[in-house]
Specification:
alpha+beta; 3 domains; 23% strand; 19 strands; sulfite oxidase activity; Sulfite Oxidase, Chain A, domain 2; 10 helices; Immunoglobulin-like; transmembrane; 507 residues
Length: 507
């Protein structure tokens, strides 16, 4: 029994040693990566997982977890890493060389992920330095702790002190790495931009644009509530003082513009409703904000677009790319290279310091964040991040509507019930919204005053509810006379379709 208990204790100590040494190595690597301004090992591995994940799984993750999908993925990576490190520690109690070899393999995989990360060049000395630190701290710490565990059993006091000293030393190194990670993130955070007043302000929000209905989406989405969907597991921390936007490709005059150069131009302010292609029927992956920036067509005109071009390939600091029809960026819809959102500089998670905002197109082809380059080109000459993964190259936002209240499975009292929500048909405008109950006749809803054809439109309908279980459905008609289709289509390749419905109980 004593032998069994001793073995269990040894395995537990080994697992703890593997976890502690591995965590110290990872934290040390993350800390140095933050200080040097490169992607750390955990996020780099997560990025590779994202790239290798099949499209249906990505769509499921976004629909299931929403903006928390990145946290779920990183948590999964950390759990798998913790299990692997603990297992190596257990193996190391009896076979130290095997454990050290296994840890070396894990660090090598992290190194490969870091070197392949599009946000940093392969072979960069910064990555090599991070890997060296992980090897030194991780392998050194594990070897030290396993050696302490394998000390002769009769030397109980010295052995215990040795193990505690090893654990304390490794933990201290990990703590330093964690502190460096935190300090690095704070120092690299968005600088305070002195965003000037726009030369052209947005028109005031019209009176009557929405309704006083509890639960109805506000016309302008607060910044903290604005949806976030992108491929960045770690929000890029960009210093506006060093950031440059390049306009390249099929242009007569390639441009390199600093954030200061952009701020010196005449800024315009526009309210625009943006929509993610991953938004399911009735989903909330859309929002309206007041954006401040420079008309994209002015920047492109300054570069001198050459004949034959039909696309603009945009590039983010994290390596993301999108392809946007050139005509959409140069027509009258008001596409922006934006620096501000809802009265202040762009938040880091929404693209600070510069991003694209393009009315009428889903974000994956038109809303690149942390923008570094606009390359004028032809669609036939490139594919972008999501088109490489089976999505359409051109993706206008589809006419849609949503019921905000009452929510699904609501318990209601019989009598007049206000049904309300929003509808959107960016760049065309919403002309009509209809609601029906239990597949009966359609009833016209009251529309809020239109802000512009680039924003969603609120609606409401008073329903004389009778007892029972009921199904409410909504559909919209746009200014061109197109009626929203009832046909259910999936998110891929160019956006979902179908009527949103909600089921309620009236008593």
């Amino acid at each position: 029994m004593t032998t069994t208990r001793t073995r269990r204790t040894a395995r537990a100590a080994g697992a703890g040693s593997g976890l502690l040494a591995g965590a110290a190595g990872v934290l040390a690597g993350e800390g140095l990566a933050s200080v040097l301004g490169v992607t750390g090992p955990v996020v780099a591995v997560g990025n590779r997982v994202v790239d290798l994940t099949p499209r249906p799984v990505k769509e499921w993750a976004i629909e299931t977890f929403g903006s928390a999908d990145k946290l779920v993925l990183l948590s999964g990576v950390l759990v798998v890493l913790a299990v692997a490190l603990a297992a190596l520690g257990v193996v190391g109690v009896r076979h130290r060389a095997a454990a050290l070899t296994g840890l070396t393999v894990l660090i090598a995989l992290a190194a490969a992920a870091m070197l392949l990360d599009p946000a940093q060049g392969a072979g960069s000395w910064e990555v090599v330095a991070c890997v060296a630190v992980m090897l030194g701290v991780g392998l050194g710490g594990l070897a030290w702790m396993l050696s302490s565990l394998q000390a002769p059993a009769r030397d109980t006091g010295p052995r215990r002190r040795s193990v505690l000293a090893a654990a304390s030393g490794v933990a201290a190194v990990g703590a330093v790495g964690a502190a460096a990670r935190t300090v690095g993130d704070r120092s690299a955070g968005p600088q305070s931009l002195d965003l000037p007043q726009p030369a052209t302000s947005a028109d005031p929000v019209p009176s009557g644009v929405s309704f006083d209905v509890d639960g109805l989406t506000p016309h302008v989405t607060p910044t903290e509530d604005f949806y976030r969907v992108d491929t960045a597991l770690q929000v890029p921390q960009v210093d506006a003082r060093d950031h440059v936007l390049r306009i390249t490709g099929m242009v007569d005059r390639p441009l390199e513009l600093t954030v200061g150069d952009l701020l010196e131009r005449d800024l315009v302010e526009r309210r625009i409703t943006m929509t993610c292609v991953s938004n399911p029927v009735g989903g909330d992956l859309l929002g309206t904000a007041t954006w401040i920036g420079i008309p994209t067509r002015e920047l492109l005109a300054g570069a001198g677009v050459q004949d034959g071009a039909d696309a603009v390939r945009s590039v983010s600091t994290d390596g993301f790319t999108a392809g946007t029809p050139l005509g959409v960026l140069t027509d009258d819809r008001g596409a922006l290279v934006a620096l501000g959102m809802n009265g202040g500089p762009l938040p880091a998670e929404h693209g600070y310091p510069v991003r694209m905002v393009t009315p009428g197109l889903y974000g994956y082809v038109s809303a690149t964040k942390w923008l570094t380059e606009l390359e004028v080109t032809r669609f036939e000459d490139f594919t972008a991040y999501w088109t490489d993964r089976g999505y359409a190259a051109k993706a206008p936002i589809k006419l849609s509507s949503r019921i905000d209240v009452p929510g699904s499975f609501a318990q209601l009292d019989a009598g007049d019930v206000t049904v309300a929500g929003v509808a959107w048909a960016q760049t065309v405008g919403v002309e009509r919204v209809e609601v029906r109950v239990d597949e009966g006749e359609w009833h016209d809803a009251e529309l809020g005053v239109e802000d512009s054809d680039q924003t969603w439109r609120a609606w409401r309908w008073v329903w004389p509810a009778e007892p029972g279980n009921h199904r409410l459905e909504v559909r919209a008609t746009d200014r061109a006379g197109k009626v929203q289709t009832s046909r259910r289509e999936p998110i891929a390749p160019d956006g979902s379709t179908g009527w949103h419905s909600t089921t309620v109980t009236v008593s």
